[in-house]
Amino acid sequence: MIVARSLFSTFRSAPGATLATLAIAALFAYAFLVPLFTADPFQLAGMSIMDSFTPPLWMDGGNPAFPLGADDQGRNIITAMAYGLRTSIVVGVSAVLIGLVLGGALGLLAGFVGGRTDAVIMRIADVQLAYPALLLAMVIDGIATAVVGRERSATLAIAIVIFAIGIAFWVQFARTIRSSVLVERDQDYVAAAQITGRSKLAIVMWHILPNVMAPVLVIATINLGIAIITEATLSFLGIGIPLTHPSLGALIRNGNAFLQSGEWWISAWPCLVLVVLVIAVNVLGDHLRDHFNPKLRGRS
Amino acid sequence: MKLEGVDVKAVSKTFGGKAGAFERLLGRTPRGLRAVRDVSFSISRGEVLGLVGESGCGKSTLARVIGGLLEPTGGDIAFRGVKPRLQMVFQDPFSSLNGRWRVDDIIAEPIRTHRLRPKGEVAGRVAELLEQVGLSPADGVKYPQAFSGGQRQRISIARALAGEPDFLILDEPTSALDVSVQAQILNLLRDLQSRLGLTSLFITHNLSVVRLMADRVGVMYLGELVELASADDIFTNPKHPYTRLLIDAAPDLDPIDRTLHPIPGELPDPSRPPSGCSFRTRCPYAQPLCAETPPPLRWEAAREVRCHFDLTPKSLSVPA
Amino acid sequence: MMEQPLLSVRHLSIGLSRQGTQLPVLNDVSFDVAPGEVLGVVGESGAGKSVAGAAIIDLLVPPLRRTAGEIALRGDRLDLMSPRQMHRVRGKRVGFIFQDPMTSLNPVLSIGKQLKDTMRTHLRLGSSELHGRALDWVTRVGLPNPERILKAAPHELSGGQRQRIVIALALCAEPEIVIADEPTTALDVSVQAQMLDLMRLLHKETGTAMVLITHDLGVVAKMADRVAVFYAGRLIEIASTRALFQSPRHPYTAGLIGATPAPDGQGGMQVVAIPGAMPGVDALPPGCAFHPRCPRAQADCRTVVPPLVVLGTGEAACLHPLPERTAA
């Protein structure tokens, strides 16, 4: 697509964004490739108490088999983090997609139909904005857990967390798409399609939607960072994802207990990976926003 | 069955003027903006009807009402014969083409929507249309951003022709273009008109352009049709003072007679039109009667005039 | 040709920097404006006429930049002045009128304040005298109820009224020359004629010279003493208004006149299009920039850039100019 091509050409003049993209690519590769070649360290077979609290390689007592050290259960930190990162990414991306699809549909509806539909959707959005996303996610997770019961499967628990975070994100997507739709629907190309006799649904899907995707992409990227942090926070608080499928947040929580006794590496490495991932995602989001903002384009 | 003609019957369009919750609470009705007031005319098959007037006269609103993009608040549009296929060419060459679509998809859209050609023939038809409007079939793979304003207007025209319209609305199709490009587009439209015999409504603020393009011309002022006659009659023998003054006001290219003929005053607020005749506040010939009674539309041979008086054109010039 | 020009532009070139290269937006343009003269500058969008006007008052915005040339106002070199000195020239010695009145008016200040501020900056006047002058200017530009207008904010006036105020602002400091860039383009036909009439009246009263930049040939036919025609960044013809319209020597000028719809003398209307389009500054053809569209082009037009040479009473940049047409 033309967007992608012109986007890559702007990377040359933005080294920060290039670096961020490379970092994201590397972290994704790490998260999805390492589990292909290793046994799941969070299954009983993956643990070896003998190796617990092995420090990183360069410290006294370091072991070449555990370059970044091992945790309290003797899991290799490098492997454990790959699994944790994978969960974090899967939850973050899925939550953003849920917010995008839900918010996108409601935003299109509000913007194109207008009138009472618009008023109802936007008032609900206003009410939801009064509550912090984290609080909302906790409430939704709590309610869903109560409904399903404690005896839930791991997959269902993850789905509930994804849903809880995703719900918190729809408002921003809906508002952005609605305001873009309000601008686009008065353009003459929409009038031309109307005169040609295309249906309202076809006009929304084929004409308006492609023209409002640019700001959506920006918000999706920035929200990905927020979603990953939100999930990490939930896991750190011990809500949501079961310990058999830990995310970065759960790894940090686990290591937190040993910070006082000097085993810093158990929580520090996942912290570092989380920080790098979120910063990279935000830098990329900022770059996309500048790229799609015609007022900023062309400025050196 | 073919489209036999278009009848615009007493069409009015008022924007606003509906009381919202707050106004209802206060017992008020806001004053609406009466953009089009009780306009009637007919366009017969194969005819080009021109509409001229200055900004705010309601000509573009009327175009959108006739095109079905706006609901009239009064009157209706009747198409004689069949339910017609409509197409429209817009003023702004930038907002009228979807920047995310390739040119061949833009032009193919009306063909696909109305299933005017079997699937396998669409690409050939698009190439043919591109050539017809003076572009190359190879241009189809590009996006609108790759084209200049004049070329974009050609793409718009190709899209309109692709719909094989029974009725074509052209809303200021050359107003955003430079004069040399405007000339190309006007010649293209004239050529297409003579070959395809399109029934069309041509809207412009430029009197020379409407004289070049239209068979009959309607002149609008403050939402009303003030005169309607053949293009020749309008320009050689205008009967309404506004028509006369408007023709004189546009500077021609004569460097020797450099007299300017401004129309005094400014357009009144369309939400508070003057009593009686809407042009009386700027009319050099206004009489007390003009403030009291709105002039009816008078018929005179094939002409309609909305003025109380007969204008003897030759003697007419603006009093100093 | 002229003794002591008021404004003299010599070899003016303006470049557009893009990715390290300079694109010639304006190329080696020279012209004079005599005291009290109205010079019309015409051309299509992108021909360079507006940047030429902006360069005179040093209002070029990067990436546009003056790359060469001298600009002198009564012998004072504007191109050598510091930004501070230029600030004093702008408004005082050179007035300007832009297409959109809202860009020239401060939306939060009253009309009276803006008029008085302009006069206070450039003229030595007491405050009572300032008020009297402001009232006088509002009356002179034909606005009723001047006391009320002085108190009004720009948004309370109509488009035509605002453009009248912009004209008053341009003239109230008694400049020697006014640069008017598309002053009537945003206006309707009826109001445009009013504004031209007003500009002509004030021009007669004040004797201020004017550079009138427009794409509308009708406006220059009625207003200008001489006309300069721009094409693809070059001045291609300059002549007295009468000579230019009656006997254009450059084929592009003739094409531009022919492209304006006009009566054909047999009761009909005609319009003759120039084929093709004006090239962008990044795609200028070699030789004469007009040769790909020119009906008179010959082999040498593709290689030689024609210089501006004296032809009859005017000047044109064409290797094979049209013969002089004598007035019938």
Structure description:
The complex is a heterotrimer of chains A (300), B (320) and C (328). With 300 residues, chain A is mostly helical. Helices cover 72% and strands 0% of the residues of chain A. With 320 residues, chain B is an alpha/beta fold. An 8-stranded mixed sheet of chain B has the order 5-6-7-3-8-9-11-10, with helices on both faces. In chain B, strand 8 and strand 9 form a beta hairpin. In chain B, helix 3 (103-114) packs across helix 4. The longest helix of chain B has 18 residues, at 179-196. Chain C is α/β, with parallel strands linked by helices and 328 residues long. Chain C folds into 2 domains: 7-231, 3-Layer(aba) Sandwich (Rossmann fold); 251-328, no CATH class. In chain C, a hairpin with a 2-residue loop joins strand 1 and strand 2. In chain C, helix 4 packs across helix 5 and helix 7 packs parallel to helix 8. At the A-B interface, helix 7 and helix 8 of A face strand 5 and helix 3 of B. Chain B: It is a peripheral membrane protein. Chain B: This is ABC transporter ATP-binding protein. Chain B: Belongs to the ABC transporter superfamily.
Secondary structure blueprint with pairings:
The complex is a heterotrimer of chains A (300), B (320) and C (328).
Chain A lengths: L1 H10 L3 H23 L39 H37 L1 H15 L3 H16 L5 H31 L3 H9 L3 H37 L11 H9 L8 H28 L8
Helix pairs in contact in A: 2-3, 2-10, 3-4, 3-6, 3-8, 3-9, 3-10, 4-6, 5-6, 6-8, 7-8, 8-9, 8-10, 9-10
Chain B lengths: L4 E11 L5 H6 L6 E12 L3 E5 L6 H8 L7 E7 L5 E4 L13 H12 L7 H11 L16 H14 L4 E5 L7 H18 L2 E6 L2 H7 L2 E6 L2 E7 H6 L4 H9 L38 H5 L5 E3 L2 E3 L15
Parallel strand pairs in B: 3-7, 3-8, 5-6, 6-7
Antiparallel strand pairs in B: 1-2, 1-4, 8-9, 9-11, 10-11
Helix pairs in contact in B: 3-4, 3-5, 4-5, 5-6
Chain C lengths: L6 E12 L2 E13 L4 E5 L6 H8 L7 E10 L2 E2 L5 H7 L4 E4 L3 H4 L6 H12 L4 H14 L5 H6 L7 H13 L5 E5 L7 H18 L2 E6 L2 H7 L2 E6 L2 E7 H6 L4 H9 L2 E2 L5 E2 L38 E3 L2 E3 L12
Parallel strand pairs in C: 3-8, 3-9, 6-7, 7-8
Antiparallel strand pairs in C: 1-2, 1-4, 4-5, 9-10, 10-14, 11-12, 13-14
Helix pairs in contact in C: 4-5, 7-8
Distance between the termini of chain B: 56 Å
Main beta sheet of chain B: 8 strands, mixed
The CATH superfamily name of the domain at 5-84 and 166-237 in chain B is P-loop containing nucleotide triphosphate hydrolases
Q: Please state the average pLDDT score of chain B.
A: 89
CATH topological fold name of the domain at 5-84 and 166-237 in chain B: Rossmann fold
Strand content of chain C: 15-25%
Secondary structure class of chain B reads alpha/beta
User: Element order, helices and strands of chain B?
Assistant: EHEEHEEHHHEHEHEEHHHEE
Structural class of chain C: alpha/beta
CATH architecture of the domain at 5-84 and 166-237 in chain B: 3-Layer(aba) Sandwich
